Amino acid sequence: MVAVRRVRLDELELPLVEPFETSFGVERRRRFLVVQIEAEDGETGLGECVATQHPLYSSESVATARWMIETYLLPLLWKEGALPPDTFRTRARVWRGHPMAKGAIEMALWDLWARRHRQSLARALGGRRRRVEVGVSVGIQSDVPTLVRRVGEYLAEGYGRIKVKVRPGWDERPVAALRKEFPELRLWVDANQGYPASAAGAIRRWATRYGVEQVEQPFPERALAAHARLVRRAPFLVCLDESITDLAAFEAAVEMQAVTSLNVKAGRVGGLGSGRELGARSAGAGLPAWVGGMLETGIGRAHNVALASLTPFTLPADLSASGRYYRQDLVEPAFELGPGSTLSVPRGQGLGVEVVESVYRKYVHRHREFRRKTP
Ligand SMILES: [Mg+2]
Q: Which range marks the domain in which residue 250 is found?
Protein backbone atom coordinates (compact mmCIF):
# COMPACT_ATOMS: atom_id res chain seq x y z
CA MET A 1 0.00 0.00 0.00
CA VAL A 2 1.26 3.49 -0.83
CA ALA A 3 2.16 5.50 2.25
CA VAL A 4 0.44 8.78 3.01
CA ARG A 5 2.99 11.59 3.04
CA ARG A 6 0.97 14.63 4.01
CA VAL A 7 -2.56 15.64 4.98
CA ARG A 8 -3.95 19.14 4.72
CA LEU A 9 -6.91 19.90 6.97
CA ASP A 10 -8.36 23.32 6.20
CA GLU A 11 -11.31 25.08 7.74
CA LEU A 12 -13.04 27.34 5.24
CA GLU A 13 -15.82 29.85 5.45
CA LEU A 14 -17.80 30.93 2.40
CA PRO A 15 -20.65 33.44 2.26
CA LEU A 16 -23.83 32.00 0.73
CA VAL A 17 -25.45 33.80 -2.19
CA GLU A 18 -28.50 34.26 0.04
CA PRO A 19 -29.28 33.16 3.61
CA PHE A 20 -30.59 29.58 3.82
CA GLU A 21 -33.28 29.11 6.45
CA THR A 22 -34.63 25.76 7.63
CA SER A 23 -36.48 24.61 10.75
CA PHE A 24 -33.03 24.56 12.45
CA GLY A 25 -32.27 28.24 11.87
CA VAL A 26 -30.59 30.52 9.33
CA GLU A 27 -27.22 29.96 7.66
CA ARG A 28 -25.58 33.00 6.08
CA ARG A 29 -22.11 31.56 5.73
CA ARG A 30 -20.99 27.98 5.45
CA ARG A 31 -18.12 26.88 7.71
CA PHE A 32 -16.67 23.47 6.85
CA LEU A 33 -13.53 21.33 6.60
CA VAL A 34 -11.66 20.20 3.51
CA VAL A 35 -9.23 17.29 3.68
CA GLN A 36 -6.48 16.76 1.16
CA ILE A 37 -4.54 13.51 1.34
CA GLU A 38 -1.21 13.29 -0.47
CA ALA A 39 0.30 9.88 -1.08
CA GLU A 40 4.04 9.14 -1.25
CA ASP A 41 3.87 9.04 -5.07
CA GLY A 42 2.50 12.61 -5.18
CA GLU A 43 -1.10 11.66 -6.06
CA THR A 44 -3.72 13.58 -4.07
CA GLY A 45 -7.35 13.19 -3.08
CA LEU A 46 -9.88 15.72 -1.77
CA GLY A 47 -12.82 15.35 0.58
CA GLU A 48 -15.27 17.93 1.93
CA CYS A 49 -16.67 17.33 5.40
CA VAL A 50 -20.42 18.11 5.58
CA ALA A 51 -20.50 18.69 9.35
CA THR A 52 -21.93 22.14 10.08
CA GLN A 53 -20.48 24.72 12.43
CA HIS A 54 -23.03 23.90 15.14
CA PRO A 55 -24.53 20.46 15.92
CA LEU A 56 -28.03 21.19 14.56
CA TYR A 57 -28.48 18.84 11.62
CA SER A 58 -26.87 16.01 13.59
CA SER A 59 -24.67 15.68 16.66
CA GLU A 60 -21.51 16.35 14.62
CA SER A 61 -19.95 19.78 14.14
CA VAL A 62 -16.82 21.20 12.51
CA ALA A 63 -15.05 20.98 15.87
CA THR A 64 -15.98 17.34 16.58
CA ALA A 65 -15.07 16.32 13.03
CA ARG A 66 -11.67 18.01 13.34
CA TRP A 67 -11.06 16.29 16.67
CA MET A 68 -12.09 12.88 15.29
CA ILE A 69 -9.89 13.25 12.22
CA GLU A 70 -6.84 14.49 14.12
CA THR A 71 -7.13 12.05 17.02
CA TYR A 72 -8.17 8.80 15.35
CA LEU A 73 -8.33 8.90 11.58
CA LEU A 74 -4.95 10.46 10.76
CA PRO A 75 -3.04 7.93 12.89
CA LEU A 76 -4.84 5.19 10.91
CA LEU A 77 -3.63 6.74 7.64
CA TRP A 78 -0.06 7.10 8.90
CA LYS A 79 -0.08 3.46 9.94
CA GLU A 80 -1.97 1.87 7.05
CA GLY A 81 -1.25 4.23 4.14
CA ALA A 82 -3.69 5.26 1.41
CA LEU A 83 -6.11 2.40 1.98
CA PRO A 84 -8.70 1.40 -0.62
CA PRO A 85 -11.81 3.36 0.48
CA ASP A 86 -13.82 0.27 1.39
CA THR A 87 -10.98 -1.04 3.57
CA PHE A 88 -10.77 2.33 5.32
CA ARG A 89 -14.52 2.17 5.94
CA THR A 90 -14.17 -1.23 7.60
CA ARG A 91 -11.17 -0.22 9.70
CA ALA A 92 -12.79 3.02 10.84
CA ARG A 93 -15.79 1.09 12.18
CA VAL A 94 -13.96 0.30 15.42
CA TRP A 95 -14.84 3.85 16.50
CA ARG A 96 -18.52 4.57 17.05
CA GLY A 97 -20.36 7.31 15.23
CA HIS A 98 -18.70 10.35 13.61
CA PRO A 99 -19.87 9.43 10.08
CA MET A 100 -19.20 12.91 8.69
CA ALA A 101 -15.59 12.93 9.88
CA LYS A 102 -15.06 9.42 8.54
CA GLY A 103 -16.85 10.33 5.32
CA ALA A 104 -14.51 13.26 4.61
CA ILE A 105 -11.48 10.95 4.72
CA GLU A 106 -13.25 8.16 2.85
CA MET A 107 -14.24 10.54 0.05
CA ALA A 108 -10.69 11.90 -0.23
CA LEU A 109 -9.48 8.29 -0.51
CA TRP A 110 -12.03 7.67 -3.31
CA ASP A 111 -10.72 10.67 -5.26
CA LEU A 112 -7.16 9.44 -4.74
CA TRP A 113 -8.12 5.89 -5.70
CA ALA A 114 -9.86 7.00 -8.90
CA ARG A 115 -6.96 9.28 -9.90
CA ARG A 116 -4.47 6.50 -9.33
CA HIS A 117 -6.56 4.23 -11.57
CA ARG A 118 -6.83 6.99 -14.20
CA GLN A 119 -10.60 7.02 -14.16
CA SER A 120 -13.39 9.35 -13.13
CA LEU A 121 -14.82 8.97 -9.65
CA ALA A 122 -18.24 8.19 -11.17
CA ARG A 123 -16.72 5.30 -13.13
CA ALA A 124 -14.76 4.07 -10.10
CA LEU A 125 -18.05 3.89 -8.19
CA GLY A 126 -19.79 2.09 -11.05
CA GLY A 127 -21.87 5.06 -12.22
CA ARG A 128 -23.34 4.89 -15.69
CA ARG A 129 -25.15 8.16 -16.22
CA ARG A 130 -23.55 11.05 -18.08
CA ARG A 131 -26.04 13.55 -16.70
CA VAL A 132 -27.96 13.47 -13.44
CA GLU A 133 -31.39 14.95 -12.92
CA VAL A 134 -31.46 17.60 -10.19
CA GLY A 135 -33.80 19.98 -8.42
CA VAL A 136 -33.40 22.93 -6.11
CA SER A 137 -34.01 23.25 -2.39
CA VAL A 138 -35.53 26.57 -1.37
CA GLY A 139 -35.15 27.83 2.20
CA ILE A 140 -37.84 29.48 4.32
CA GLN A 141 -38.49 33.00 3.00
CA SER A 142 -39.55 36.21 4.72
CA ASP A 143 -43.07 35.99 3.24
CA VAL A 144 -45.18 33.99 0.80
CA PRO A 145 -44.93 36.40 -2.21
CA THR A 146 -41.10 36.28 -1.91
CA LEU A 147 -41.20 32.47 -1.94
CA VAL A 148 -43.49 32.41 -5.01
CA ARG A 149 -41.16 34.84 -6.80
CA ARG A 150 -38.01 32.82 -5.91
CA VAL A 151 -39.61 29.58 -7.07
CA GLY A 152 -40.67 31.29 -10.30
CA GLU A 153 -37.06 32.35 -10.87
CA TYR A 154 -35.73 28.83 -10.31
CA LEU A 155 -38.33 27.41 -12.70
CA ALA A 156 -37.29 30.01 -15.27
CA GLU A 157 -33.67 28.93 -14.81
CA GLY A 158 -34.78 25.42 -15.75
CA TYR A 159 -35.11 23.50 -12.49
CA GLY A 160 -37.68 20.73 -12.94
CA ARG A 161 -38.57 20.06 -9.32
CA ILE A 162 -38.68 22.30 -6.31
CA LYS A 163 -38.22 21.36 -2.67
CA VAL A 164 -39.26 23.92 -0.08
CA LYS A 165 -38.30 23.92 3.56
CA VAL A 166 -41.29 23.91 5.92
CA ARG A 167 -41.83 24.20 9.67
CA PRO A 168 -44.82 24.72 11.95
CA GLY A 169 -46.37 28.02 10.89
CA TRP A 170 -44.71 27.96 7.45
CA ASP A 171 -46.34 25.08 5.63
CA GLU A 172 -49.93 25.10 4.39
CA ARG A 173 -49.98 28.77 3.35
CA PRO A 174 -46.79 28.75 1.24
CA VAL A 175 -47.61 25.32 -0.23
CA ALA A 176 -51.15 26.44 -1.18
CA ALA A 177 -49.77 29.61 -2.78
CA LEU A 178 -47.22 27.65 -4.83
CA ARG A 179 -49.88 25.22 -6.04
CA LYS A 180 -52.16 28.07 -7.05
CA GLU A 181 -49.41 29.90 -8.94
CA PHE A 182 -47.82 26.79 -10.51
CA PRO A 183 -50.50 24.10 -11.04
CA GLU A 184 -48.02 21.69 -12.68
CA LEU A 185 -45.20 22.16 -10.18
CA ARG A 186 -43.35 19.05 -9.01
CA LEU A 187 -43.30 19.97 -5.32
CA TRP A 188 -41.46 18.38 -2.39
CA VAL A 189 -41.28 19.66 1.19
CA ASP A 190 -38.63 19.09 3.87
CA ALA A 191 -39.29 19.75 7.58
CA ASN A 192 -35.86 18.78 8.97
CA GLN A 193 -37.52 17.05 11.97
CA GLY A 194 -39.47 20.18 12.86
CA TYR A 195 -42.89 18.67 13.79
CA PRO A 196 -44.17 16.70 16.77
CA ALA A 197 -45.82 13.36 15.97
CA SER A 198 -49.20 14.94 16.78
CA ALA A 199 -48.94 17.06 13.60
CA ALA A 200 -49.29 13.99 11.33
CA GLY A 201 -52.99 14.54 10.58
CA ALA A 202 -52.53 18.17 9.59
CA ILE A 203 -49.47 17.41 7.43
CA ARG A 204 -51.36 14.64 5.65
CA ARG A 205 -54.28 16.99 4.93
CA TRP A 206 -52.35 19.90 3.40
CA ALA A 207 -49.78 17.76 1.60
CA THR A 208 -52.57 15.72 -0.02
CA ARG A 209 -54.75 18.70 -0.82
CA TYR A 210 -51.97 20.63 -2.58
CA GLY A 211 -50.43 17.71 -4.44
CA VAL A 212 -47.11 17.48 -2.59
CA GLU A 213 -45.17 14.58 -4.11
CA GLN A 214 -42.88 13.99 -1.14
CA VAL A 215 -42.73 14.97 2.54
CA GLU A 216 -39.22 14.68 3.96
CA GLN A 217 -38.33 14.00 7.59
CA PRO A 218 -41.30 15.64 9.30
CA PHE A 219 -40.54 14.14 12.72
CA PRO A 220 -37.40 13.79 14.88
CA GLU A 221 -34.59 11.50 13.87
CA ARG A 222 -35.52 8.68 16.25
CA ALA A 223 -39.30 8.93 15.77
CA LEU A 224 -39.60 6.00 13.36
CA ALA A 225 -42.99 4.97 14.78
CA ALA A 226 -44.43 8.43 13.99
CA HIS A 227 -43.11 8.22 10.42
CA ALA A 228 -44.62 4.72 10.10
CA ARG A 229 -48.05 6.04 11.14
CA LEU A 230 -47.82 8.76 8.48
CA VAL A 231 -46.76 6.24 5.81
CA ARG A 232 -49.87 4.13 6.45
CA ARG A 233 -52.23 6.93 5.43
CA ALA A 234 -50.19 9.03 3.01
CA PRO A 235 -50.84 9.23 -0.74
CA PHE A 236 -47.41 10.96 -1.04
CA LEU A 237 -43.86 9.69 -0.50
CA VAL A 238 -42.55 9.87 3.06
CA CYS A 239 -38.82 10.43 2.80
CA LEU A 240 -36.25 9.90 5.55
CA ASP A 241 -33.02 11.90 5.74
CA GLU A 242 -31.65 12.52 9.27
CA SER A 243 -33.07 9.20 10.60
CA ILE A 244 -30.92 7.10 8.30
CA THR A 245 -27.47 7.28 9.85
CA ASP A 246 -26.34 3.87 8.63
CA LEU A 247 -27.50 0.65 6.97
CA ALA A 248 -28.93 -0.73 10.22
CA ALA A 249 -31.12 2.37 10.64
CA PHE A 250 -32.37 1.88 7.08
CA GLU A 251 -33.21 -1.79 7.68
CA ALA A 252 -35.11 -0.85 10.83
CA ALA A 253 -37.08 1.83 8.97
CA VAL A 254 -37.96 -0.60 6.16
CA GLU A 255 -38.96 -3.28 8.67
CA MET A 256 -41.25 -0.78 10.42
CA GLN A 257 -42.59 0.56 7.11
CA ALA A 258 -41.56 4.04 8.19
CA VAL A 259 -40.07 5.10 4.84
CA THR A 260 -41.18 5.18 1.19
CA SER A 261 -38.32 7.27 -0.26
CA LEU A 262 -34.71 7.67 0.78
CA ASN A 263 -32.50 10.76 0.79
CA VAL A 264 -28.90 9.53 0.63
CA LYS A 265 -26.12 11.87 1.73
CA ALA A 266 -22.72 10.25 1.60
CA GLY A 267 -21.40 12.42 4.44
CA ARG A 268 -24.28 11.49 6.75
CA VAL A 269 -23.58 7.76 6.43
CA GLY A 270 -19.78 7.71 6.53
CA GLY A 271 -18.91 8.10 2.88
CA LEU A 272 -19.57 7.07 -0.71
CA GLY A 273 -19.24 3.33 -0.05
CA SER A 274 -22.11 3.35 2.45
CA GLY A 275 -24.06 5.76 0.23
CA ARG A 276 -23.73 3.37 -2.70
CA GLU A 277 -24.80 0.42 -0.54
CA LEU A 278 -27.83 2.32 0.76
CA GLY A 279 -28.87 3.12 -2.82
CA ALA A 280 -28.61 -0.56 -3.75
CA ARG A 281 -30.54 -1.73 -0.66
CA SER A 282 -33.19 0.87 -1.29
CA ALA A 283 -33.66 -0.30 -4.88
CA GLY A 284 -33.74 -3.88 -3.55
CA ALA A 285 -36.56 -2.92 -1.19
CA GLY A 286 -38.45 -1.28 -4.07
CA LEU A 287 -38.05 2.25 -2.68
CA PRO A 288 -36.94 5.23 -4.77
CA ALA A 289 -33.71 6.87 -3.58
CA TRP A 290 -32.05 10.14 -4.43
CA VAL A 291 -28.92 12.04 -3.50
CA GLY A 292 -29.24 14.95 -1.08
CA GLY A 293 -26.91 17.85 -0.44
CA MET A 294 -25.51 19.83 2.49
CA LEU A 295 -24.72 23.17 0.79
CA GLU A 296 -21.40 21.73 -0.38
CA THR A 297 -18.93 23.66 -2.50
CA GLY A 298 -17.89 22.19 -5.84
CA ILE A 299 -15.60 19.69 -4.08
CA GLY A 300 -18.41 17.96 -2.19
CA ARG A 301 -20.79 18.48 -5.08
CA ALA A 302 -18.45 16.59 -7.42
CA HIS A 303 -18.55 13.65 -4.98
CA ASN A 304 -22.35 13.86 -4.82
CA VAL A 305 -22.80 14.06 -8.59
CA ALA A 306 -20.59 10.97 -9.00
CA LEU A 307 -22.80 9.12 -6.49
CA ALA A 308 -25.97 10.27 -8.24
CA SER A 309 -24.68 8.78 -11.52
CA LEU A 310 -25.42 5.31 -10.11
CA THR A 311 -28.62 3.73 -11.41
CA PRO A 312 -30.40 3.08 -8.06
CA PHE A 313 -30.83 6.83 -7.62
CA THR A 314 -34.01 7.41 -9.59
CA LEU A 315 -35.42 10.67 -8.18
CA PRO A 316 -33.90 14.09 -8.92
CA ALA A 317 -31.00 14.99 -6.60
CA ASP A 318 -30.68 18.08 -4.40
CA LEU A 319 -27.58 19.19 -6.32
CA SER A 320 -28.01 22.56 -7.92
CA ALA A 321 -25.60 24.55 -10.05
CA SER A 322 -22.69 26.19 -8.21
CA GLY A 323 -24.27 29.63 -8.55
CA ARG A 324 -27.29 28.57 -6.46
CA TYR A 325 -25.04 28.46 -3.40
CA TYR A 326 -21.89 30.53 -3.89
CA ARG A 327 -20.94 33.53 -5.97
CA GLN A 328 -17.55 32.01 -6.60
CA ASP A 329 -17.06 28.26 -6.39
CA LEU A 330 -13.79 26.67 -5.28
CA VAL A 331 -13.49 24.49 -8.37
CA GLU A 332 -13.35 24.68 -12.12
CA PRO A 333 -15.29 23.99 -14.16
CA ALA A 334 -18.25 25.14 -12.06
CA PHE A 335 -21.41 23.01 -12.19
CA GLU A 336 -23.96 24.54 -14.58
CA LEU A 337 -27.58 23.56 -15.02
CA GLY A 338 -28.08 21.76 -18.34
CA PRO A 339 -31.07 20.65 -20.43
CA GLY A 340 -33.86 18.77 -18.68
CA SER A 341 -32.86 20.05 -15.21
CA THR A 342 -29.57 18.12 -15.19
CA LEU A 343 -25.92 18.50 -14.22
CA SER A 344 -23.32 16.73 -16.29
CA VAL A 345 -21.15 14.12 -14.57
CA PRO A 346 -17.46 15.13 -14.77
CA ARG A 347 -15.45 12.69 -16.88
CA GLY A 348 -11.90 13.69 -15.95
CA GLN A 349 -9.83 11.69 -13.49
CA GLY A 350 -10.99 11.58 -9.89
CA LEU A 351 -13.48 14.32 -9.07
CA GLY A 352 -12.99 15.70 -12.58
CA VAL A 353 -12.85 19.26 -11.27
CA GLU A 354 -9.79 21.18 -10.05
CA VAL A 355 -9.54 23.50 -7.08
CA VAL A 356 -8.72 27.09 -7.99
CA GLU A 357 -6.00 27.73 -5.41
CA SER A 358 -6.25 31.52 -5.50
CA VAL A 359 -9.97 31.38 -4.68
CA TYR A 360 -9.56 28.55 -2.18
CA ARG A 361 -6.88 30.40 -0.21
CA LYS A 362 -9.10 33.45 0.06
CA TYR A 363 -11.64 31.53 2.15
CA VAL A 364 -9.30 29.48 4.35
CA HIS A 365 -10.00 30.40 7.93
CA ARG A 366 -7.60 27.98 9.53
CA HIS A 367 -4.96 25.85 7.85
CA ARG A 368 -3.23 22.83 9.33
CA GLU A 369 -0.82 20.47 7.72
CA PHE A 370 0.30 17.09 9.03
CA ARG A 371 3.23 15.04 7.82
CA ARG A 372 4.03 11.41 8.44
CA LYS A 373 6.87 11.05 10.87
CA THR A 374 9.54 8.96 9.23
CA PRO A 375 10.99 6.40 11.66
MG1 LIG B 1 -33.48 16.91 4.40
A: 123-344
